[in-house]
Amino acid sequence: MKLLVSLFALLSLTALVGCKLKIPAFDSARVEVHAGGRVTTTGVLSPAQTKAVREWLEARKTGWDHRIESTGPVLLVKLERGGQLVGVMNVMENQVKVGDFFRPITPEERQMLHLHLATFLNSKQKT
User: How far apart are CA 22 and CA 48, in angstroms?
Assistant: First the structure.
């Protein structure tokens, strides 16, 4: 019984440390910038920019919390595969949400993501 209680405590503690995000397979991405509840800018990421998003997510597979929670869109990255939506990444002030998984980000990470995503919006590629 003592072993069972110890095992349960260890598993519970492990669950609190953070979840591992399963990154959807995607080959393209669209970006929407929201302000005041409205879409203000949209764009399509280039293959190199899409790769940068994938690499950012791959480098941060752990430390995610699973929560069923609705959030207002801020900087949305719509991840697509073969033209079909497979996931949405919402970059907010202090966290990133992918599906139902949240991960805190530093101001530096947020600035880097905004730099990668917002500067790649190309007016010729509006949706």
Answer: 21
Residue 12 in any domain: the answer is: no
d(CA 31, CA 9): 42
The tens digit of pLDDT for each residue in 82-125 reads 999 999 999 999 999 999 999 999 999 998 888 878 665 544 34
In a domain, 9, yes or no: no
pTM: 0.76
Q: What is the pLDDT of residues 52-64, one digit of tens each?
A: 999 999 999 999 9
- How many domains does one find in the chain? 1
Which residues form the domain of 115?
Answer: 18-125
